[in-house]
Design a protein that fits this description.
By secondary structure, the protein is mostly helical. It has 14 helices and 2 strands, in the order αααααααααααααββα. The longest helix is centred in the N-terminal third of the chain and has 32 residues.
């Protein structure tokens, strides 16, 4: 006969766990002997091992009690279900391990190879790493939210960075990142970008400028990420808005259909952009 400590040792649990299982009614408590100690037989060891294995597999203790009272057929079926669940959890853990392993190599975390290649091309052009990081964080959100659309979006990005003028915008922004809000380089960049977008919209159509069709809440979240990562990005968008365009993640014309008044400064800025475009 075994003491409670010996029972716990043989079953691979603590004495506290044995007492907890007693309290839950999972393991019957034997009568005390003449010395006042409880003594356990081999059957108690077997029962306790069953309880431990089921509990470690994530089976709720209330269900453990039911299984201990089940017949062989019901018990075998339940064990089969538990095994299937554990296999699914193992597969999920393996996927998590693969993601953690990719974390060590930076951009590969949760990003398809095509997106990683795009980010590497930005670096090769000499784009500031803060801008690349903002792009990367946005792609992580997109890949998690709408993975089926990533090939479509990345194809569009490849087409865009093939345009030397757009690449120049990235480089100009890189050089203007640490400038103050009203520094000429940032203002000049807003002027050039507005003129470029206007020309593109007239030549290719409004939808061509940005047809990514990302949901507004996700656009807002991605914009916040960019503004937190890229100094000057928020100010650039403010300057761009005064020139008829707005948006970081999703570019679109400023809507004046509701009768919003245009300030003299805005009117002059738009006029200058249009003159440059026609030149």
């Amino acid at each position: 006969m075994l003491t409670i400590g010996e029972l716990a040792s043989y079953a691979g649990v603590t004495v506290r766990a044995v007492r907890h299982y007693h309290a839950k009614g999972l393991l019957p408590e034997p009568e005390r002997d003449h010395s006042g100690y409880r003594r356990y037989d081999a059957g108690a060891v077997v029962e306790l091992i069953k309880i431990r294995i089921l509990a470690e597999a994530g089976v709720p203790l209330a269900r453990v009690r039911e299984l201990l009272q089940a017949d062989e057929v019901e018990f075998a079926a339940a064990v089969g279900d538990i095994d299937s669940r554990l296999r699914a959890e193992i597969r999920q853990r393996q996927r998590h391990r693969a993601q953690i392993a990719r974390l060590a190599v930076g951009d590969n975390l949760a990003l398809p190879p095509a997106v990683v290649e795009y980010l590497d091309r930005l670096r090769a052009f000499g784009v500031d790493e803060r801008i690349v990081q903002a792009e990367r964080d946005g792609w992580i959100l997109l890949a998690a939210h709408s993975p089926e659309r990533v090939p479509e979006w990345i194809a569009r990005k490849r087409e865009q960075i093939a345009d030397p003028q757009l690449t120049d915008f990235f480089l100009s922004l890189s050089q203007a990142l640490d400038r103050t809000a009203d520094d000429p380089p940032l203002v000049e960049l807003a002027e050039k970008l507005a003129a470029y977008l206007t020309r593109l919209a007239e030549e290719e159509g409004e939808d061509y400028v940005d047809d990514t069709d990302i949901e507004p809440p996700l656009v807002k979240l991605m914009d916040e990420l960019a503004f937190d990562t890229v100094p000057g990005a928020r100010r650039l968008i403010e300057l761009l808005r005064k020139r008829g365009w707005t948006g970081w993640t999703k570019l679109e014309r400023v809507n004046r259909a509701r009768g919003a008044a245009e300030t003299p400064h805005e009117a002059r800025a738009v006029e200058r952009s249009q003159i440059r475009m026609r030149a």
